[in-house]
Amino acid sequence: MTTQTIPLGDLVEIKGGGTPSRTVSEFWNGNIPWATVKDFKSTALDATEESITLEGLKRSATNIIPSGNVIIPTRMAVGKAAINSVDMAINQDLKALLPKGKIDKRFLLHFLLAKGEFLEGQAQGATVKGIKLDLLRTLPFPALRLDEQRRIAVILDKADAIRRKRQQALALADDFLKSVFLEMFGDPIINPHGFVREKVRLHLDGSRTGIQSGPFGAALKKHEYVDAGVPVWGVENVQHNFFVDVPKLFITDEKYQELLRYSVKSGDVLISRAGTVGRMCIATTSHQRSIISTNLVRVALNPDSLTSHYFVSLFTYLPGRIGALKANNKDDAFTFLNPKTLRELEIPIPDMTRQIEFLKIAQKTKRAIDIQSQHVDGLDDLFAALSQRAFRGEL
């Protein structure tokens, strides 16, 4: 049975905000929290990076939003939502949804989060994308009794709390590996253990093209992709020290033979060179044959002198190293990842005994993380399915 709906605009008042003049110092650093999209780090809006004064509030278009209300970005971070735990002012990129009908705020929060992908897809704009208020007002909101909304909100809150605890466990495991890395090798800039510094090119796999950018231009055209075949890895497969072994693009066997120089083996290092520049991970793929796409760089190391785990950890756990590479690059934002630049990088090279010791610790921890990740993925899918059922009135 399909649940009846009512336009969201019939149930909430949408209130916007504004920004006090940046040129008037008296408007800033006061006692009034002032929220922007930068403060949307979770679904709880507890604190803000900036604050304004009472005079700044009076002399601008911003508004105070009482605690306990749902606030959403309508520009830049469309699809997010949070409830503020303290009274705060908001800027022009945010909108507060203040109930004027029978609506549970936690249920409204979950409803908007479930609509996040849809809203993000509706965002428009050449540079900064946003959604129009009419889209919000016309969203079909389930016409459920208030007690029924509260019951569903409690179920979704509990499911979300379990999912978040799993995610926190993964973050703690990653923090543990970072601590182990720093303890064993120290800051590479200071190099407290006095490891010899050598160029990366001295530690590449001589049997392959050690560092290879993805195929450009005529090498691989869009019409050459097929529905199934040899995987082509993209930036979405390269996460923070984690490889997503789920291909979305494929090429034929014949095309693969033409592009062997771009091939990937388990243990190779993959680096994003567009969008999330510098993000990297170790390819742990179950596919015997695959290649990289245009926006990736593949690094094949000599495992007898430089392990992939040490190399990736050097950059993953010390992101400032990526920033330093960007700062030293005199060309465009991406070329610091081209083969020539990467080959000539000088990095500390620890003895293999120490690298292998870290490798064993990392592999053991990764196995635990992989098990947890499978649970998290399942919980994400379960939570998404639960949300969809809830807003169809099936819970």
Helix-strand layout with pairing:
Elements lengths: L4 E3 L4 E4 L12 E8 L8 E2 L4 E3 L1 H5 L5 E2 L4 E4 L8 E3 L3 E3 L3 E6 L5 H10 L1 H7 L10 H5 L2 E3 L3 H40 L10 E4 L11 E3 L16 E4 L4 E2 L2 E2 L5 E3 L1 H6 L10 E4 L7 E3 L8 E2 L3 E4 L8 H9 L3 H9 L10 H5 L2 E4 L2 H39 L5
Parallel strand pairs: 3-9, 4-8, 14-20
Antiparallel strand pairs: 1-11, 2-10, 3-5, 6-9, 7-8, 7-10, 12-22, 13-21, 14-17, 15-16, 18-19, 18-21
Name some characteristics of this structure.
395 residues; alpha+beta; Adenine-n6-DNA-methyltransferase TaqI, Chain A, domain 2; 3 domains; 5-stranded mixed beta sheet; 4-stranded mixed beta sheet; 10 helices; 19% strand; globular
Summarize it.
By secondary structure, this protein is α+β, with helices and mostly antiparallel strands. The chain has helices spanning 54-58, 105-114, 116-122, 133-137, 146-185, 253-258, 308-316, 320-328, 339-343, 352-390, and strands spanning 5-7, 12-15, 28-35, 44-45, 50-52, 64-65, 70-73, 82-84, 88-90, 94-99, 140-142, 196-199, 211-213, 230-233, 238-239, 242-243, 249-251, 269-272, 280-282, 291-292, 296-299, 346-349. It has three domains: 5-143, Adenine-n6-DNA-methyltransferase TaqI, Chain A, domain 2 (Alpha-Beta Complex); 145-168 and 351-395; 196-349, Alpha-Beta Complex (Adenine-n6-DNA-methyltransferase TaqI, Chain A, domain 2), CATH 3.90.220.20.
